């Protein structure tokens, strides 16, 4: 069975850049009848909070994602401890005692000599006596994984054949001085334990994949299939970032955007599929193949989001809109079908509904008062239909000689108080004769 995972760090509210792998993993699982694991990578105890973790779950639910399994790395340290001990016993995890200042000086010296600034494995030369002396001085070790230093090759699900040469990389630190774990080891251990078959994430992780494949192999676990997608950037081409305060999904929700619009923008941007309304997440899953993902950057356009959000509302059925309309006290299919084409956000229906239900502040120019008084006198009797507007304006045209904008605009401004809006032939029967008489001078 296909099993994927999305593994956010609950150190802030998730943004569009985070939503992209969340959605792509969901679509892949749906397309292949698989399972979706939400894994909270909360080993950074200083920055991870339960509030942020709850926010992640709320944002996923808003997007329409229901994980099959939720796990938290903070609950799984026993697994990581066992893997750590196995790697130490195998000679693949070794203690290092350099301070950050010392490491920084070594990197600068290597650059000055024209060498790559990678760790020189000096700690491997320490004797037991050396280590005992350092620990007697109060130093505590961090632990590095000893890379094979070879070309690691893998077939990327999205980018095709890839090679990462770990000989050009520093042995990665897997365990901090305080004994806490960095991202890499828990990630591999969890992928093995949870039987993850596919790891789908941003292309900024390609080099990490070489390291992680070596750790998979050192632990004797099956290596999953990796897929690295292009990154979503903002309109200026900058990556989204919690650190930089990029707009979060909760911000978009508060501003009234449709969750499906956000899901489409987060996933379809940077693919060969068009940015357009889709019926549902299942509809996207059925259409989106990873071969459609571009190898170039995926640039988010806020104007495109606004247009998409409006188009989704313009095609929304009354049945779909009804629960939200009911919460606003605005039930009525005729009103919805009349006004939905004017909406940019769903909440706009509150203001637009005043055209039907009132109150309306008529806009009446002095030079149009006589014309509007005559219009009031010629207003047809009820019952009204879609033909009433034509009957009324034809009578006014015959009586005044007005036509086009001089005829129609004063009527629109008096009846709605706006220059724009739905067709008056459709609006008139819903407003009714009494309300029209009240709005005309």
TrEMBL record:
Motif range ('KMSKS' region): 239-243
EC number in record: 6.1.1.17
Chain residues that bind ATP: 242
Top-level taxonomic group: Bacteria
Gene3D superfamilies listed in its UniProt record: 1.10.10.350, HUPs
GO molecular function: ligase activity
Keywords of the record: Aminoacyl-tRNA synthetase, ATP-binding, Cytoplasm, Ligase, Nucleotide-binding, Protein biosynthesis
Catalytic activity: tRNA(Glu) + L-glutamate + ATP = L-glutamyl-tRNA(Glu) + AMP + diphosphate
InterPro entries per UniProt: aa-tRNA-synth_I_cd-bd, aa-tRNA-synth_I_codon-bd_sub2, aa-tRNA-synth_I_CS, aa_tRNA-synth_I_cd-bd_sf, Glu-tRNA-ligase_bac/mito, Glu/Gln-tRNA-synth, Glu/Gln-tRNA-synth_Ib_cat-dom, GluQ/Sye
SUPFAM superfamilies attached to this UniProt entry: An anticodon-binding domain of class I aminoacyl-tRNA synthetases, Nucleotidylyl transferase
Broad class of enzyme this protein falls into: ligase
Residue ranges occupied by any Aminoacyl-tRNA synthetase class I anticodon-binding domain in the UniProt entry: 335-440
Summary of the function given for this chain in its UniProt record: Catalyzes the attachment of glutamate to tRNA(Glu) in a two-step reaction: glutamate is first activated by ATP to form Glu-AMP and then transferred to the acceptor end of tRNA(Glu).
Family the UniProt entry places it in: Belongs to the class-I aminoacyl-tRNA synthetase family. Glutamate--tRNA ligase type 1 subfamily.
Assembly and oligomerization: Monomer.
Name listed for the protein in its UniProt record: Glutamate--tRNA ligase
Biological source species: Devosia yakushimensis
């Amino acid at each position: 069975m296909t099993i994927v995972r999305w593994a956010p760090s609950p150190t802030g509210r998730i943004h569009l850049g985070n939503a992209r792998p969340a959605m792509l993993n969901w679509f892949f699982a749906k397309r292949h009848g698989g399972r979706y694991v939400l894994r909270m990578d909360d080993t950074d105890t200083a920055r991870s909070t339960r509030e942020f973790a709850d926010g992640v779950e709320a944002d996923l639910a808003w997007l329409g994602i229901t994980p099959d399994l939720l796990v938290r790395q903070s609950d799984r340290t026993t697994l990581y401890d066992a893997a750590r001990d196995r790697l130490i016993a195998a000679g693949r995890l070794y203690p290092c005692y350099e301070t950050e200042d010392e490491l920084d000086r070594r990197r600068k010296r290597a650059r000055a000599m024209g060498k790559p600034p990678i760790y020189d494995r000096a700690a491997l030369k320490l004797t037991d006596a050396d280590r005992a002396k350092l620990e007697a001085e109060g130093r505590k070790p961090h632990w590095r994984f000893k890379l094979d230093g070879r070309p690691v090759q893998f077939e990327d699900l999205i980018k095709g054949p890839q090679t990462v040469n770990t000989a050009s990389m520093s042995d990665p630190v897997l365990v901090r001085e305080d004994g806490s774990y960095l991202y890499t080891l828990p990630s591999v251990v969890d992928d093995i334990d949870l039987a993850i078959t596919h790891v789908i994430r941003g292309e900024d992780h390609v080099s990490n994949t070489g390291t992680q494949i070596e750790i998979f192999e050192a632990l004797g676990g099956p290596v999953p299939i990796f897929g690295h997608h292009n990154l979503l950037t903002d309109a200026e081409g900058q990556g989204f970032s919690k650190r930089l305060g990029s707009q979060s999904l909760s911000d978009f929700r508060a501003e009234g955007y449709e969750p499906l619009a956000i899901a489409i923008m987060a996933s379809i941007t940077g693919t060969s599929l068009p940015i357009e309304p889709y019926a549902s997440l299942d509809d996207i899953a059925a259409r989106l193949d990873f071969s459609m993902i571009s190898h170039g950057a995926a640039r988010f356009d806020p104007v495109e989001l606004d247009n998409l959000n409006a188009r989704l509302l313009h095609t929304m059925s009354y049945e779909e809109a009804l629960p939200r309309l009911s919460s606003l006290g605005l039930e009525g299919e005729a009103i919805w079908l009349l006004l939905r084409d004017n909406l940019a956000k769903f909440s706009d229906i509150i203001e637009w509904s005043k055209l039907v239900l009132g109150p309306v502040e008529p806009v009446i120019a002095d030079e149009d008062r006589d014309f509007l008084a005559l219009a009031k006198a010629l207003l047809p009797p009820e019952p009204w239909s879609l033909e009433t507007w034509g009957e009324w304006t034809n009578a006014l045209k015959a009586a005044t000689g007005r036509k086009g904008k001089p005829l129609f605009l004063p009527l629109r401004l008096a009846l709605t108080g706006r220059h724009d809006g739905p067709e008056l032939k459709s609006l008139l029967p819903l407003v009714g004769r009494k309300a029209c008489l009240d709005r005309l001078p």
